[in-house]
Fold this protein.
Amino acid sequence: MSARILSGQPAAERIRADVGRQVEELTQLGREATLAIVTANDDESSSWYVRSLVSSAAKLGVNAAVHDLGPCAGEVTIRATLERLSTDHAVHGIILQTPLPGGIDLGDVARAISPEKDVDGANPVSLGLLAAGLQAFAPATAEAVMTLLDEYQIDVEGREAVIVGRSAVVGKPLFHLLLNKNATITVCHSRSSNLQDVTRRADVVVAAVGKARLLTSEHVAPGAVVIDVGTNADPKEGLVGDVDANDVGPLAAALSPVPGGVGAVTTSLLLLHTTSAALRAQGQNFTPAGIGS
């Protein structure tokens, strides 16, 4: 068996087309969509992602401004920056890039992001709205997983899905998104015992822990669908995922690559969320086509 490669490029291209149409509509209104990216780390994987996002934004006509507070930034500084950007009418979307400096909780400081500008669903209010089935921006990475499953017509209804990782930006929101699709879900984390036993019984495995090549063939049942959310900087190989693709590939039915899988969709969704927020700010509505829920 050789895994079907679940490239994110086809879905990303359609999303970028939606972004382009929204940018055109904003231009006709005399407006430009602006995304503020707040960083407070010196993590190479994070830096790679921010560079990719800024590059993609420039190509599509979205203004992406990086606010680098440095790896020693304190909670007060981060919160004040988010509050300032939330009240800036020229800013339509805000993301707070992780990891954060030690001792700072994402949920605590993300409360300072206005829900209307919370394009990556970091504010706990956004997660609550998502859990209740109300309108909110879902965290883009979690939404990207669903978009990728939809793209390849992988139906999760009635199937068992295991999420490895319980972060507020992927694992927890993805739980709710999968539940909305009637999947049966287990969420594993650093204190889960017998991880292999849990993941091996799953029809769909989502790896989102930030540990390079953590999941091997021992964690995957033959014929399972494996979605790799990891983006880990490897000094020799560049960007690698949380899944050992060479080991898992011959066993799985389908596998998303790193790079070129979930990440490509995530970046496009963040820009779509930003242009959608900009249109809302102008009293306009836009319903993008082909986006997973």
